[in-house]
Inverse folding.
C-alpha cells in the first residue's frame, strides 16, 4: 500500500510538472480576406470609386457552424420558420423616411444614420426618434477643411465615400451621432471651416453593434450558386439557412442593416435603360467594384425571378427589401428588391443593438479613437487579456460605470480595474461585477453593477476573454504600418504610443505592450486594442473605491516585466504624433450635451425646420402624431384629409347660403 501511494504521488507530481512545463499560450492569426486582396489589385482611380472592405476575414462562428450542421438543426429550423414570416418589412411597424443623397457620395452615412434611427424606433427605447445628420458623419471623418486639417479625421476627403467601419468609429468615439437639425443635409460636399463641425454637440452614442459573417457567392454560367466563406471554403445549405435566419431575426428585433452593392452598372437593374425606375436588382459578377451603400429593411422569400432583368435573372426566388437613398421619385417609391443570390448583398452587413444619450457628466477614455479597423484571430489555449491604460483628466471625481470592448465570438468576458495607477500586476487589478458577461456583437458595452471611483492620475482597465473556440478581437490598426498593404487606406492616420495597450496570451500571467506585438510578418507599432472606459461624475450612492479583494477573483499571476525593460504604463498620451482623443475641448463638448428632456423640447419644433421623425407603431404614437410631421404616404394622407375637410366646410357654407336664399 505504501509503495502504491508513493507511485501515485510520484505520477501526480510528474503530471503537475508536465502541465507547468508544457502550458501553452494562445496564438494570434491574421487572415486577409479575398475581397481586400481584390481591392488591392485595383487601380488608384478604381479604389477612389469603391468602398474599401475590411482587411480581415469575417466567417461564421464555430459554435453556430456546429449548430447548423447538427442533427437537431432541422427541428430548430422548423420552429424558426414558424416565427419568421416569409415576407416582412420594417415599414409595417415603423415610419421610415426615404432620404435623398442628391449628387453627394454620402450613401454610406445616410445608410448608417437610417440604421441608428430604425434601431431606436423598433426597439421601443423612445417614442420620438430624431433624424441624425449624415452630413456631419461625412465631414467629421474627413481631413481637409478651409481653415486647416482635422486631426481626428480618417485618411479620406469629401466626395471619396466611406463605409460602415468608419461610421462605427464615429458613432462610438464621442463625435456622433449629431441631430439632423444641427447640421442639415445639403446637396454638395463643399469644404467648410472646422468650427462648423467642432461646435456641434453629439446627441446619441452607439454602445453595441454587430457585423454579420459574410456569405460570399460564386455563380456559374447557368446561374447555380455556390456559397463560400472568406477563406473560400464552401458553406453547407444549413449554414446559409442559419445565417439568413439570424439576419431576419435581427431585422425584426433591432431594425435595419447597412449593406452595399454595385450601383453604377445598368445591366444589374430590372430596367437597364432607365435604372432609376427599376424595382429589382441582381448582380451575378464578383468582378465589379462595390460602390453604393443601401439599407436592408425586410425580405420576401417568394419574390419572383421574373421581376428581374429578363437577360439576367437569378436562379432562385427571394429578395431583400432595401431602402435606397434617392428619394421617393426613384426606384419603387424609394425602395428596391435585391435578390438573395446577389453576390454582394450578404456581405459586411452592419447593425446597431444598443445606444445611449450623451449626458453632461459623461467622459469617454479611449486609445482606439478610430474604432476596430481590423480583427485578429485568437486560437485560445486559455484566457486572453486586453488592457488599456488611461490618464485621468480633470480634477472632479469620476466613476467608471461602463466598459466597451470590440471582440466577437462565443466569448465570456471578465472585467478588471486598477483605479489608482497603470499597473497590470495581479495585486493591482481587481475583478468587478458587470451586468452581462457574454459578448454577442462586434462592439459590446458592459455596465458595472457598482461604479468604480478613479483614485489616481492613471488607471487601467483589463478584459479577460474566455472561450474554448476561436474568436477575434478588435484592433485599431494602421494597415500600412502593420505591413498589411502598401496602398494608402482610410486608416493611415491611426497611431499609437508605448504604454497605452497591452495583451496577455496566457491568462493574465504576462502582459506584452501591443506596440511590440509581432504576428508573422505583421507588426503593430501603430495599433491599439479596442477597450474604452466610460465615466461619470455623478456619484453613486455607494461608490466602490476598493474593488473586490478576494484572492479568488484576482488574475492568477504577476506580469513578467523586468523593471529595466518594462513598457511604460504611464505615457504622455497627448503627444503631437497621435490625435488627442481625450482633450479638454472634448470634455467641454461632452459636458455641454443637452439632457434627454431638453432634446425632446428641441424636437417638438421639428416642423419649423423641416426635420422629419420616425415613430414606432408598437407604442402609443399620440405624442408623435400631435407634435411632429410624418413622411411618405403618411404625409400624403394628412394632405388628403385636410383637403377633404376644407371641401366639406366650403360645401356646408354653400348649402347654408342656398337654404337661406330659398
Amino acid at each position: 500500500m505504501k509503495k502504491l501511494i508513493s507511485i501515485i504521488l510520484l505520477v501526480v507530481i510528474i503530471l503537475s510538472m508536465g502541465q507547468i512545463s508544457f502550458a501553452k499560450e494562445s496564438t494570434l492569426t491574421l487572415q486577409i480576406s479575398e475581397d481586400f486582396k481584390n481591392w488591392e489589385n485595383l487601380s488608384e482611380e478604381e479604389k477612389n470609386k469603391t468602398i474599401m472592405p475590411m482587411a480581415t476575414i469575417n466567417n461564421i462562428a464555430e459554435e453556430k457552424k456546429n449548430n447548423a450542421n447538427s442533427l437537431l438543426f432541422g427541428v430548430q429550423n422548423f420552429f424558426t420558420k414558424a416565427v419568421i414570416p416569409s415576407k416582412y418589412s420594417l415599414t409595417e411597424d415603423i415610419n421610415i423616411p426615404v432620404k435623398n443623397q442628391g449628387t453627394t457620395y454620402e450613401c454610406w452615412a445616410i445608410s448608417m444614420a437610417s440604421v441608428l434611427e430604425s434601431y431606436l424606433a423598433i426597439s421601443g427605447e423612445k417614442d420620438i426618434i430624431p433624424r441624425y445628420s449624415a452630413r456631419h458623419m461625412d465631414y467629421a471623418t474627413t481631413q481637409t477643411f478651409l481653415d486647416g486639417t482635422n486631426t481626428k479625421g480618417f485618411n479620406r476627403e469629401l466626395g471619396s465615400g466611406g463605409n460602415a467601419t468608419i461610421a462605427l468609429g464615429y458613432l462610438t468615439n464621442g463625435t456622433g451621432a449629431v441631430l439632423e437639425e444641427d447640421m442639415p443635409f445639403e446637396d454638395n460636399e463643399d469644404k467648410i471651416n472646422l468650427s462648423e463641425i467642432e461646435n456641434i454637440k453629439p446627441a446619441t452614442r452607439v454602445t453595441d453593434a454587430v457585423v454579420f459573417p459574410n456569405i460570399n457567392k460564386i455563380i456559374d454560367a447557368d446561374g447555380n450558386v455556390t456559397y463560400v466563406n472568406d477563406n473560400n471554403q464552401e458553406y453547407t445549405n444549413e449554414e446559409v439557412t442559419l445565417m439568413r435566419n439570424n439576419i431576419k431575426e435581427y431585422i425584426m428585433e433591432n431594425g435595419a442593416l447597412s449593406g452595399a452593392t454595385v450601383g453604377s452598372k445598368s445591366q444589374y437593374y430590372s430596367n437597364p435603360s432607365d435604372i432609376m425606375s427599376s424595382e429589382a436588382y441582381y448582380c451575378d459578377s464578383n468582378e465589379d467594384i462595390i460602390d453604393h451603400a443601401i439599407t436592408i429593411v425586410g425580405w420576401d422569400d417568394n419574390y419572383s425571378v421574373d421581376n428581374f432583368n429578363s437577360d439576367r435573372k437569378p436562379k432562385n426566388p427571394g429578395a431583400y427589401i432595401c431602402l435606397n437613398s434617392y428619394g421617393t421619385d426613384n426606384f419603387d417609391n424609394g425602395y428596391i428588391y435585391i435578390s438573395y443570390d446577389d453576390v454582394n448583398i450578404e456581405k459586411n452587413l452592419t447593425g446597431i443593438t444598443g445606444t445611449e444619450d450623451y449626458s453632461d457628466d459623461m467622459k469617454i477614455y479611449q486609445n482606439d479613437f478610430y474604432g476596430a479597423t481590423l480583427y485578429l484571430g485568437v486560437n485560445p489555449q486559455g484566457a486572453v487579456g486586453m488592457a488599456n491604460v488611461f490618464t485621468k483628466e480633470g480634477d472632479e471625481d469620476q466613476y467608471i460605470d461602463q466598459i466597451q470592448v470590440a471582440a466577437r465570438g462565443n466569448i465570456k468576458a471578465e472585467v478588471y480595474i486598477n483605479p489608482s495607477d497603470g499597473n497590470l500586476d495581479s495585486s493591482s487589478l481587481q475583478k468587478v461585477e458587470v451586468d452581462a458577461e457574454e459578448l454577442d456583437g462586434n462592439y459590446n458595452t458592459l455596465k458595472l453593477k457598482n461604479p468604480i471611483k478613479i483614485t489616481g492620475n492613471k488607471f487601467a482597465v483589463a478584459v479577460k476573454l474566455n472561450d474554448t473556440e476561436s474568436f477575434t478581437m478588435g484592433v485599431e490598426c494602421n494597415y500600412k504600418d502593420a505591413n498589411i498593404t502598401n496602398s494608402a487606406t482610410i486608416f493611415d492616420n491611426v497611431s499609437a504610443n508605448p504604454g497605452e495597450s497591452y495583451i496577455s496570451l496566457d491568462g493574465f500571467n504576462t502582459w506584452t505592450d501591443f506596440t511590440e506585438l509581432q504576428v508573422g510578418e505583421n507588426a503593430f507599432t501603430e495599433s491599439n486594442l479596442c477597450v474604452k472606459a466610460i465615466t461619470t461624475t455623478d456619484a453613486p450612492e455607494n461608490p466602490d473605491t476598493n474593488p473586490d479583494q478576494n484572492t479568488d477573483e484576482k488574475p492568477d499571476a504577476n506580469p513578467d516585466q523586468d523593471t529595466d525593460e518594462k513598457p511604460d504604463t504611464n505615457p504622455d498620451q497627448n503627444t503631437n504624433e497621435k490625435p488627442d482623443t481625450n482633450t479638454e475641448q472634448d470634455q467641454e463638448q461632452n459636458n455641454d450635451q443637452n439632457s434627454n428632456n431638453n432634446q425632446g423640447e428641441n424636437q417638438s419644433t421639428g416642423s419649423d425646420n423641416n426635420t422629419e421623425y420616425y415613430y414606432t407603431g408598437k407604442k402609443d404614437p399620440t405624442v408623435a402624431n400631435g407634435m411632429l410631421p410624418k413622411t411618405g404616404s403618411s404625409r400624403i394622407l394628412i394632405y388628403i384629409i385636410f383637403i377633404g375637410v376644407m371641401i366639406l366646410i366650403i360645401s356646408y357654407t354653400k348649402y347654408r347660403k342656398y337654404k337661406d336664399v330659398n
User: Anything to note?
Assistant: The first strand starts at residue 27 and ends at 29. Residues 79 and 345 are 26 Å apart (CA to CA).
